[in-house]
């Protein structure tokens, strides 16, 4: 656990970059610092590895003040990833990744073996190990940056806008892989971004900073969307807040209907009265939508409109299901199981009846105390105290 206790940072010249910030970054979780430019996010991040010393207040790792540790020793237990990756241009990719192992005096063979293992882990072809950074794309360089930060297996990772310099498609890929990696590694991660969508996608906890270094709210993504603490946070989250809340509503609680589902062998006459029916094969896989009134004989032989997007029951959110309903010719979303077989259909009204945080009476948590974990993780897994 990383703890900020009343941390203030006043730079020479008088700028207050952090104003009495108290918060906790739980072990094994991703805490995202988000907010306006100049809000003090980077300053806050850097107080953790002593690149910035607070004017007053304390930063603790597992209860121990970071000032009790020598910066070099402290930083060996804290991976650091920055925008544009910050790779050494004249070192090969392998040697870039092995930077910290070399500093820790690992022998060259072991350090390179570790670097190769990490290349695979972050989705890089190990054959690229002999290249130099300029011979890699921006997205590949960022992966190297992540691999380099992970090389000595630090329990803590600080990430300062690590995915900002790449295009949106690559960025989404990097984010997905980062989340997959975190599911395996359970690092204690503090992640700085300008982008509220990135914060909501990646964060277990989100801390919103306002210009002047004030922490305005720290909360789960669900609560932040449903209950912004004030107009600043609401404005920062932006439009479509209600719809975005549906990303956190589960489809497992949905009651799906079988009324509109028909076998391909069923006769159109049996479905008379229904405007649309979903035609399925023997394994209940969806074949398409049919209008019984315009068909004769088996529905499988009728003119079918494409099924369009479906949603996986229990796997996808209500937002995905609502998207499927909007895009469906019938206005009904098709829910499938893991094998792709149709479980049933739901209308937009059915979908909006699912309880969400946006409609419950939960009170936002502004205390800085972590609430119930949003993502399962083994709290025993990480030992930040072993840093260095
Ligand atoms: N070394 C420094 N000396 C003086 N002022 C600084 C220094 N570093 C940062 N600041 C000021 O402190 C404030 C907070 O800066 P910081 O970089 O922490 O904000 P940020 O939220 O990370 O901003 P951005 O999103 O634009 O990167 C800003 O007003 C900045 O100009």
Automatic annotation (TrEMBL):
Organism annotation: Actinomadura citrea
Keyword Transferase belongs to the record: no
Domain ABC transporter: 2-237
Keyword presence, Transcription: no
Annotated SMART domains: AAA
Signal sequence coordinates: none
Region of interest (Disordered), residue spans: 349-388
Coiled coil: none
Broadest EC class assigned to this enzyme: translocase
Entry's Gene Ontology molecular function annotations: ABC-type quaternary ammonium compound transporting activity; ATP binding; ATP hydrolysis activity
EC number(s) reported in the record: 7.6.2.9
UniProt protein name: ABC-type quaternary amine transporter
Family membership noted in the UniProt record: Belongs to the ABC transporter superfamily.
Domain of life: Bacteria
Composition skew (Acidic residues), residue ranges: 379-388
Assigned keywords, A-Z: ATP-binding, Nucleotide-binding, Transport
